[in-house]
Recover the amino acids of this structure.
């Protein structure tokens, strides 16, 4: 505690918010980095200028001295340290930049940009420490915290070029514009992007989801519709008969669903920024396509409602003169979207925004201490609601469910105002149609491995598309030789289910998965399984021979003894679709680097250590067994990644739980509660799909 | 035998002078950046959340900016001497 009674790291009373100070400094420093880059560019241009070359030929003595002085100014350290961003035709500057990097040096602009990014990351984490656990922030902090600044710049450059890291980085909404600026400083402006494309096709909602779609027009009804759709990138158009008998149209556009794939999802940072901030995004174009397909007559009245990217897209549409000439946009309501001061193309359009000050997507510069002043108090076509929600935790405070709850409980006046404004749309819904957005410029996420036919399977939490697809996961499988009798004692009491033997021992596998993006949302799982023989015709060495077989032809498999997952959706799918004994637990895992770490406070389990040298091995396709009623359920898992086999010496399991269940007792009975594995199969990034469980009559 | 006309040579000399002017302006800019980086380091000194590394790093980078400014001015002087040598008939050049 400081003398003024405040805790260290917190603002002194009446003083500026430290995070605001950091953000301001980061902005200044980034501006300076851009200035240094421009100076460096001009100096390099002078050095290779034809006039100087020609004059040097005439007077070599003074000319060479001038060139040498320029070269020193451009490359010496301390100083500019080398040319930043050499153009494609500037051969000399490019050669100098390469030579500098080859000897481990970095130019001053890059180093200053790194300082700016570090300050910005510190500011974001000060307000939202929970972001430190996100995959993108972990990758970023690992890169920028290298011991030497030069090493950090190199690691950052590599990270920003890494295509596989783009998905994780694209999730860093509050840092996207800074990352793009820094990338431009490190590598020159991006050439990628081109003209954004968009498309949409009508899709069926499915019985279960259709039942939860609102049949009467109201603000919360429309927002709940958006929430119901926000899992898979579909939008909704509803025809509503108003109190005056006129049919009007309500376009409902969902936003980003962190940790879930979307066909129109941005493929890189530029795409993420464009969707979030730019006026001409693929999302906006896709909405126009959807409305054309819906057959809305020219001049019809439209209300546009959106959350997050969807909110941005509907505000874009309200600004689009062509669109507003075709349709009469009466209302545009954006929830949790960066609003700015946007002017609608039609001055009669009523624009409303609802923003939680802690929402980093809607207010990327962090919360303000006072609500933003209204631009024009007499302007009745604008309605802005800015409030401080009960939690700062991101992305929780960005979720539409939170906004709906806040509008219901904390902001009844704002909700009533919005409902009153939407009065022409308060009536029975006469048609509901969903559209799936497409981005034709890119293949779908995970293509071709995850381009699969799917079918919905009913569960208690709604329909789940099977196979479940995993777009971005990491795993570590810790393999322990165990006593076959101990393994047998943990399997169901049936003589046809026996652990596979590898010599005198059986094999138990403790698997930790970090699923960062899946069709059932992101989650972490910890599973204990035992390798078992074919249920009908067990043969010796099947387990070894199976390694050479395709997964669908394998006889052996892994019987899942215990499974812990972190989300309700994952729990329900594991239990109801795959028949696995599953519990919902708190757990976190970081499996992306050489140092792996996973812990679950609820289980009292810690897995940590450093992976030694590894050998590339075939992907970890596998057959998993579970039980449903009196039958066995067999599930095939196909994976695509770079699996490596590591010695287990550097990794250990620690169990601080005296309880018998769940998992802890099984680990103790197998003797692996404080053991080191024989080997570890690890993969920091892979894709996978798990089919529906096939019931076997055993 | 190839001879260079007086006009292109004069134009090249003018271009050289323009480069020299830009180098001097850039040197002033770099001095300005050095001052701004030091001011940022000072502002972070009063910020309880500022990371420990930030002030030394900004001071280091401010020193690099100042050093770059000196070198840019040196280069401008060297180019000016070269421009004078390249256009002796025009008499003394301005800009020093």
């Amino acid at each position: 505690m400081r003398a003024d009674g405040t805790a260290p790291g917190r603002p002194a009373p009446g003083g500026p918010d430290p995070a605001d100070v950091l953000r301001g400094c980061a902005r200044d420093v980034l501006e300076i980095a851009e200035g240094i880059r421009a100076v460096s560019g001009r100096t390099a241009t002078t050095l290779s200028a034809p006039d100087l070359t020609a004059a040097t030929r005439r007077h070599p003595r003074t000319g060479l001295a001038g060139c040498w002085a320029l070269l020193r100014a451009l490359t010496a350290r301390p100083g500019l340290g080398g040319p930043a961003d050499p153009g494609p035709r500037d051969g000399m500057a490019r050669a100098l930049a390469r030579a500098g990097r080859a000897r481990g040096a970095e130019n001053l602009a890059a180093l200053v940009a790194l300082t700016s990014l570090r300050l910005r990351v510190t500011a974001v984490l000060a307000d939202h420490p929970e972001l430190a656990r996100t995959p993108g922030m972990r990758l970023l902090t690992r890169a920028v915290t290298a011991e030497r600044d030069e090493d950090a710049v190199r690691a950052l450059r590599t990270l920003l070029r890494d295509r596989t890291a783009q998905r994780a980085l694209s999730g860093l909404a509050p840092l996207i514009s800074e990352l793009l600026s820094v990338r431009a400083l490190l590598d020159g402006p991006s050439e990628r992007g081109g003209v954004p494309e968009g498309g949409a096709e009508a899709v069926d909602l499915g019985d279960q989801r259709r039942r939860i779609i609102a049949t009467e027009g109201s603000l919360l009804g429309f927002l709940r519709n958006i929430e119901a759709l926000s899992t898979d990138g579909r939008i909704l158009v509803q025809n509503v008969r108003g109190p005056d008998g006129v049919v009007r149209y309500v376009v409902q556009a969902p936003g980003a669903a962190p940790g879930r794939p979307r066909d129109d999802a941005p493929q890189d940072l530029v795409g993420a920024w464009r969707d979030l901030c730019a006026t001409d995004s693929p999302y906006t174009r896709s909405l126009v396509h959807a409305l054309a397909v819906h057959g809305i007559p020219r001049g019809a009245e439209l209300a546009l409602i959106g959350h997050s990217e969807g909110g941005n897209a509907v505000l874009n549409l309200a600004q689009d003169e062509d669109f507003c000439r075709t349709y009469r946009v009466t209302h545009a309501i954006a929830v949790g979207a960066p609003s700015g001061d946007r002017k609608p193309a039609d001055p009669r359009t009523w624009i409303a925004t609802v923003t939680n000050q802690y929402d980093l997507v809607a207010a990327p510069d962090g919360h303000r201490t006072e609500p933003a002043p209204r631009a024009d108090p007499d302007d009745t076509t604008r309605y802005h609601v800015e409030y401080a929600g009960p939690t700062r935790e991101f992305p929780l405070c960005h979720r539409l469910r939170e906004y709906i709850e806040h509008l219901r409980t904390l902001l009844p006046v704002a909700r009533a105002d919005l409902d009153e404004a939407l009065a022409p749309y308060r009536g029975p819904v006469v048609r509901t149609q969903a559209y799936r957005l497409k981005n034709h410029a890119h293949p779908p996420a995970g293509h071709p491995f995850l381009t699969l036919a799917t079918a919905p399977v009913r569960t208690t939490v709604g329909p789940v598309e099977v196979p479940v697809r995993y777009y971005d996961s990491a795993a570590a499988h810790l393999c322990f030789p165990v006593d076959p009798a101990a393994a047998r004692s943990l399997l169901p009491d049936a003589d046809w289910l026996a652990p596979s033997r590898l010599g005198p021992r059986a094999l138990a596998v403790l698997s930790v998965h970090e699923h960062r993006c899946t069709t059932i949302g992101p989650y972490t799982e910890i599973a204990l399984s035992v390798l078992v023989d074919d249920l009908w015709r067990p043969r010796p060495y099947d387990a070894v021979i199976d390694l050479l077989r395709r997964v669908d032809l394998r006889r052996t498999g892994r019987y899942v003894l215990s499974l812990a997952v972190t989300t309700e959706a994952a729990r329900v799918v594991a239990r109801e679709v795959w028949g696995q004994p599953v519990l919902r637990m708190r757990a976190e895992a970081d499996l992306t680097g050489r140092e792996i770490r996973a812990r679950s406070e609820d289980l009292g389990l810690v897995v940590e250590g450093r992976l030694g040298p590894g050998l590339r091995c075939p992907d970890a396709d596998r057959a998993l067994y579970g039980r449903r009623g009196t039958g066995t359920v067999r599930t095939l898992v196909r994976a695509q990644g770079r699996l490596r086999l590591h010695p287990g010496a550097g990794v250990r399991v620690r169990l601080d739980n005296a309880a018998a269940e769940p998992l802890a007792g099984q680990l103790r009975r197998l003797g692996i509660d404080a053991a080191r594995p024989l080997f570890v199969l690890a993969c920091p990034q892979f894709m996978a799909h798990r089919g529906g469980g096939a019931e076997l009559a055993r | 035998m190839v001879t260079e006309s007086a006009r292109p040579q004069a134009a090249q000399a003018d271009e050289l002078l323009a480069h020299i002017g830009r180098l001097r302006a850039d040197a002033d800019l770099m001095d300005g950046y050095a001052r701004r980086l030091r001011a940022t380091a000072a502002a972070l000194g009063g910020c309880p959340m500022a990371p420990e590394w930030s002030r030394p790093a900004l001071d280091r980078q401010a020193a690099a900016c100042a050093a770059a400014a000196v070198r840019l001015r040196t280069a401008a002087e060297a180019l000016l001497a070269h421009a004078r040598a390249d256009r002796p008939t025009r008499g003394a050049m301005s800009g020093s």
Q: What stands out?
A: The mean pLDDT of chain A is 84. The CA atoms of residues 280 and 478 of chain A lie 48 Å apart. Chain A is about 35% helix and 25% strand.
